[in-house]
Amino acid sequence: MATRLAHLKAAHYFVVASETLSYTAAANKLSVSQAAVSQQIRLLEEYLGVSLFYRAGRKMLLTSQGKTLAEHLSVGFEKIEYGLNSVKLEPLAGNLTVYGLQSITSLWLMPKLWRFSDMHSDINVRLFSAEELPDLQSGDIDVSIYNVPILREDTENKILLTSPIVPICSRELFQRIGFNSIEDFLCCWLIQTNIPEYSWSQWGKEYGLTLAGKERLWAEVSSWYMGISAVKAGHGIFLCPEFMVQEELERGELVKPFDLPLSEPLSFYLAHSKQSPRLERINAFVKWIKQESEENIVTPYSPTKILSGSDPSQ
Amino acid sequence: MATRLAHLKAAHYFVVASETLSYTAAANKLSVSQAAVSQQIRLLEEYLGVSLFYRAGRKMLLTSQGKTLAEHLSVGFEKIEYGLNSVKLEPLAGNLTVYGLQSITSLWLMPKLWRFSDMHSDINVRLFSAEELPDLQSGDIDVSIYNVPILREDTENKILLTSPIVPICSRELFQRIGFNSIEDFLCCWLIQTNIPEYSWSQWGKEYGLTLAGKERLWAEVSSWYMGISAVKAGHGIFLCPEFMVQEELERGELVKPFDLPLSEPLSFYLAHSKQSPRLERINAFVKWIKQESEENIVTPYSPTKILSGSDPSQ
DNA sequence: ACTTATTCATTAGATAATCTTATGGCTACA
DNA sequence: TGTAGCCATAAGATTATCTAATGAATAAGT
């Protein structure tokens, strides 16, 4: 590293002035007097032995050397600013960016979020939904909810919730087909995600249903969310984490034809950087969300109730 | 740009300390007292609300946050240093990097260079030879000598020298073949660069020599320098800028079988950035080299003299 | 042409940041 | 157990930097 880096403050003032092309405006931005800016820039010019600004009437313009310098310095100071911001401790109040799969954010988190905002009106939660592995080190994401833990030295992971995966269909489909036995599944579209552990072939293996026939009706969706949307539209039976459709099950909009979950449940993991400058905010959020998930571990409705309710003759 | 960039000096000290992992060593590098470093880093830690170093016995180690910060800051300060250096005026004394094609540096410039060092013992000339277009803005090259001008707003170009291009061969080849007429060329290897203007076919066109026959012996070299090397080894006749082999012609090592130059001479251009911080040095060099080239514009030996002088019996 | 407002330059004095010196505590090592 | 090496801290000295006031130059409005 450079051991002789003189006049850093002057360089900073210069960069601000190079953006505004006005000492007065720069001085305002920097909350100092115009004279301070003028002096610092003069100092820098003397140090470099080169003039950086020249007057064009009432305006100040950069000399060609000034332009060169400003380009280099501005990227330097940006990096420095970014570095400082990425470790500078922030107070409790402020923004908090939560990342999650579409399914869990829209189906589980969003409906609960108002309660958090209620408790912490000074924390502004911003949701960010996508399907790829989150980067918790970049500073763009504070907390993530993902279906695998984010394994890194500096990342803290907690299991947020664990949910069985069961076949789900719409009430209409359920009433139309009847579903006296699991073989009745074979005359419906079988919807699944692209995760092999949670596929119909796995389910078939566990419950002795042969799905090999090529006359099967398959559909593969790229996210839980899309599968649930399909099921709601009555398009088939979906192997779905139960908690995601808890409300719909309660309302009877969606139905579990049989309460036959996959042996492997699905877990979601809460993760955040251990050294985030927003740890205080993060901890408040994590504490709250853990409570929320614990209050909802038990599925309040037995799906067979709906089943028998809608078909008492069985 | 960031308008609130506090404690830049502290950040700088921190980066130096993060490299040495010692406040004392950092203080020495920075030419300040150890206490100054200690205080600045403490200040920075307080500002960030985060500890950056921790003591491990007698050593200081970076905390994980310290590491993060140091990584970002060091690249930032490097950019700043680079920027400042690229405009900071330098005194006459110091390094000067001269770029040129292999041929011109080794055959023309290098042999003269001792005279410059003699005049300017405080300017240390470093030669850099390659074949591609030089970048005079990067700061790595101060002056270039190239066969086309470097056309840029901020670049100054001067013609350094203009030289005829003539057929050249070794004395041995000359004596062996005799060369009574230009048709005798046809029984030798014809060596040329890959520049069409300076090719044998161009020469043949100008002097009415038909070179179409497929029994021709051709060799194409990628630089003047390589062609001259080939000729010196007696491998054929080369279309060569005369000034490059002036000494060899004088000594009789190489010979011009006929003084029949191409109509288009070859020019070399001296170029440098108008806003280099090393302009003083550059000007000294340019002034000298222009003088050198003007003193040598005329070829002192008529090649036909060597021709007749070296082989009186023929 | 004459104000007037705006902008940067310059100065002197005030203020704040930063440095040094001196000292003390801790650790590693002989 | 002493000693040397390293960092922390405090007080006072020294610089660096700021502000306020003023001047000079320009552009725009009257």
UniProtKB/TrEMBL annotation, chains A, B:
Q: Which GO terms describe its molecular function?
A: DNA-binding transcription factor activity; sequence-specific DNA binding
Q: Which domain of life is it from?
A: Bacteria
For biological process, the GO terms are: DNA-templated transcription
Q: Which InterPro entries match?
A: LysR-type_TF_proteobact-type, LysR_HTH_N, LysR_subst-bd, WH-like_DNA-bd_sf, WH_DNA-bd_sf
Taking every annotated instance into account, which residue ranges of this chain make up the domain HTH lysR-type? Answer: 8-63
Recite the UniProt keywords alphabetically. DNA-binding, Transcription, Transcription regulation
**Which family does the record assign?**
Belongs to the LysR transcriptional regulatory family.
The identity of this protein, by name, is Transcriptional regulator
Give the organism, scientific name: Marinomonas balearica
Q: What is the lineage of its organism?
A: Bacteria, Pseudomonadati, Pseudomonadota, Gammaproteobacteria, Oceanospirillales
